[in-house]
Automatic annotation (TrEMBL):
Name of this chain's protein: DUF58 domain-containing protein
Biased composition (Basic and acidic residues): 118-129, 169-202
InterPro entries found in the cross-reference section: DUF58
Superkingdom assignment: Archaea
Sequence ranges assigned to domain DUF58 in this UniProt record: 208-332
Pfam families: DUF58
Organism of origin: Halorussus aquaticus
Residue segments, region Disordered: 99-202
Length: 482
């Protein structure tokens, strides 16, 4: 409970009357001071009793229209307050939205979203609309209630009511294609046949195999079909214990290529979430090694607990393409670092002593992680955690040499490797403006994908917009017709 300014003003009057009674020897003034004090105590008692009744009877709802939305997509949130009966106090109920969500509609957007219940009223309601450019779980804290007595003497402020969470997902690509080239003419190098008949509504291809059911050995899972379908399929093999699965998720700057909501990262994210979900459904341990331009951003070893799955899912869902290293404000090159360190060599001043370790450290960091952060992250992860039975790599074809090196690292210890690669030609602005050149680059990518598959225990898939894949191959087929 808080005494307001008016309370203190009345209390000062009572104190002055008491002081005057003593100073002027006027007992009648002392009676006045006692009357003021008694009145204040009575009002305080009434306020405490009324505020306790409010806390007991007040029901608050904080209800998002839907629990999940997409980035920059509005979601209405209703704030309501209801009392069992009219109260002698006036109430102010203030919503506490997360700073990551902005209010786009509802009342004056410059003010806090507030409900007011004047004395004698028993219910109020308002709806505000929010949106967020940031993916993730956004929590609305419990609303704050301020109760005030009608005389302006006292107030009490307390949190009351439920919290609420809105999960904001990145915008999803509409036509996710996961496939591989080959002599069967499924996607790449094929210029005839009906490919569209083998795609589901989500754009994933599959073979006619039995769906996984509870109790099937993990050894029987057909990883190619599982990756394409987004749910487990099995073949009949000998049984084997659960498989630890490690996801190596690349979200460096090059993965941000493509239109909003349809970047390389957006496409790979959908596949990664499906793989993680499948691992959870099979109760396999799952982990995540996320890679930015400066090195690892997440190192989560494979575990079976639901907590670990939620950590993996959240990290993938909230991932964004990192800024490229080498900009004017981000880092120095090894040559620059060495030159500056050499300039300070032999300088015993406090200034040189302070700066020298920074340039030496920058040299080491750029040479170790800046050049090959993907491979280095895998090395770091393997030094900390046991080798997974299945390693799943999500990346693009920007640096084929580093990708091959990374896959070879992931193979060690007899591990199986799945590789999902986003072809740059399908995402670059104007990449398909010249279909002949686009098709040639697509063939180069397919050769790179096949090179990966020639490695032991490795299966590689392309991931991208299905309509663009069809456009390249259909144009090539038309040109080949006599």
């Amino acid at each position: 409970m808080r005494a307001e300014r008016r309370y203190w003003g009345v209390a000062v009057v009572g104190a002055l009357l008491a002081l005057s009674a003593v100073t002027l020897d006027r007992p009648v003034l002392l009676a006045g001071a006692a009357g003021i004090g008694g009145w204040l105590l009575s009002r305080q008692f009434d306020f405490v009793r009324a505020s306790a009744a409010v806390r007991s009877d007040l029901r608050i709802e904080q209800d998002p229209d839907r629990g999940t939305t997409l980035t920059d997509q509005p979601v209405p949130v209703t704030l309501g307050a209801r009392l069992a009966g009219p109260s002698a106090l006036s109430l102010r109920v203030e919503s506490r939205p997360p700073v990551s969500m902005r209010r786009v509609a509802g009342g004056d957007r410059t003010d806090a979203p507030v409900l007011r219940l004047p004395r004698g009223e028993s219910s109020a309601r308002r709806t505000d609309t929010y949106e967020s450019p940031v993916a993730g779980d956004h929590a609305f804290d419990a609303p704050t209630v301020t109760a005030a007595d009608p005389g302006g003497l006292f107030s009490q402020r307390f949190p009351h009511g439920p919290e609420a969470t809105v999960s904001v997902d990145p915008r999803r690509p509409r036509d996710v294609h996961v496939g591989e080239g080959g002599e069967r003419g499924e996607r790449v190098l094929a210029t005839d046949g009906d490919r569209s008949g083998r795609r589901t509504e989500s754009g994933l291809e599959f073979a006619e195999l039995r769906k996984y059911v509870t109790g099937d050995p993990a050894r029987n899972i057909d990883w190619k079909t599982t990756a394409r379908m987004g749910e487990p399929y099995v073949r009949e093999y000998e049984s084997q214990s659960r498989h630890a699965t490690a996801l190596v998720f690349d979200h460096r700057a090059s993965l941000g290529q493509g239109p909003d909501g349809a970047t390389k990262l957006d496409y790979l994210r959908q596949v990664a979430l499906a793989v993680a979900r499948n691992a959870r459904e099979r109760e396999d341990p799952v982990g995540l090694y996320a890679v930015g331009d400066e090195g690892p951003t997440e190192l989560l070893g494979p575990e079976r607990e639901d907590r670990r799955y939620e950590e993996v899912r959240r990290a993938i869902r909230e991932s964004t393409a990192t800024a490229a290293v080498g900009g004017s404000d981000l880092s120095v090159t090894p040559a620059t670092a060495r030159r500056r360190a050499d300039d300070l060599d032999g300088d015993a001043s406090e200034y040189a002593t302070t700066l020298r370790p920074y340039f030496e450290a920058a040299d080491r960091y750029v040479s170790q992680l800046g050049d090959h952060p993907l491979a280095e992250t895998v090395r770091v992860a393997r030094s900390r955690f046991r080798s997974a039975d299945l390693n799943v790599l999500f990346t693009d074809d920007t640096d084929p040499v580093e990708t091959v090196e990374t896959v070879k690292l992931l193979q060690r210890g007899g591990s199986h490797v799945l590789v999902f690669v986003a072809p740059s030609v399908l995402f670059e602005p104007g990449g398909l403006a010249d279909f002949e050149r686009g098709y040639a680059r697509y063939l180069e990518f397919e050769e790179f994908r096949r090179r990966l598959e020639r490695l032991d225990r490795v299966t590689a898939f392309e991931v991208g917009p299905g309509d663009r894949v069809d456009a390249v191959l259909d144009d090539r087929r038309r040109r080949a017709e006599p």
